[in-house]
Design goal:
Keywords: Electron transport, Heme, Iron, Membrane, Metal-binding, Transmembrane, Transmembrane helix, Transport. It comes from Effusibacillus consociatus. InterPro entries: Cyt_c-like_dom, Cyt_c-like_dom_sf, Cytochrome_c550/c551-like. The chain has 140 residues and is mostly helical. It folds into two domains: 12-47, no CATH class; 59-137, Cytochrome Bc1 Complex, Chain D, domain 2 (Orthogonal Bundle), CATH 1.10.760. Helices cover 48% and strands 6% of the residues. It has a two-stranded antiparallel sheet. Helix 3 (64-74) crosses helix 5 and helix 4 (94-109) runs antiparallel to helix 5. It is elongated, with a radius of gyration of 31 Å. The structure holds heme C. Residues 74-75, 77-79, 87-89, 91, 94, 97-98, 103, 106-107, 111, 114-117, 119, 122, 132 line the site of heme C.
């Protein structure tokens, strides 16, 4: 009788021509499975979506205070709040210099051709821009 490759054996099965050994799953692996499953369940229950995370760091308050933080994060690399010029002009007295409307305009559209990025392109939403405006209004 020809040797039967698929003959069940005590020591291995043959799956698609590959011999698969029968052994017990080692104890340490079982504990790893249990720990991973537990972690996955914990993660699935407690994880927040990326959007929620961004919301968490986005100040919802439209205040000059919040605006100052946004300024320090998004603008201070190019602007001082004094009259000193960095990459862009110092913003002391900017409201009086530009007037409300032009300031609003710059805060929404920037001046991309002149090196001032449009703040929405920096990832700032309307509330953040409103807060920024309140803060810039305080710069005398
Ligand atoms: C990559 C550098 C850069 C960043 C970041 C930047 N700016 Fe500017 N900004 C400039 C430059 C350069 C100008 C000058 C543009 C010009 O010559 O008209 C400018 C101009 C301005 C002006 C007009 C000032 C004036 O006297 O005409 C305002 C207001 C302003 N920026 C506010 C902001 C705010 C608020 C932020 C943060 C959201 C910001 N900028 C981020 C470079 C930057």
């Amino acid at each position: 009788m020809a040797h039967d490759e698929n003959r069940p054996s005590k020591h291995y099965d043959t799956v698609s021509g590959i011999k698969v050994k029968h052994t017990r799953v080692p104890k340490f692996l079982k504990s790893i499975y249990v720990i991973l499953a537990g972690w996955a369940a914990y993660y699935a229950i407690t994880a927040t979506t990326i959007n929620d995370r961004t919301d968490a760091v986005t100040p919802v308050e439209v205040t000059a205070e919040a605006g100052k933080e946004i300024f320090n994060t998004s603008c201070a690399g190019c602007h001082a709040v004094t009259t000193q010029r960095l990459v862009g002009p110092g913003l002391a007295g900017v409201k009086d210099r530009l007037g409300d409307q032009e300031l609003e305009n710059v805060l929404h559209n920037g001046r991309p051709q002149r090196g001032m990025p449009a703040p929405p392109s920096l990832g700032l939403n309307d509330d953040q821009i409103r807060a920024l405006k309140l803060y810039l209004d305080t710069l005398k």
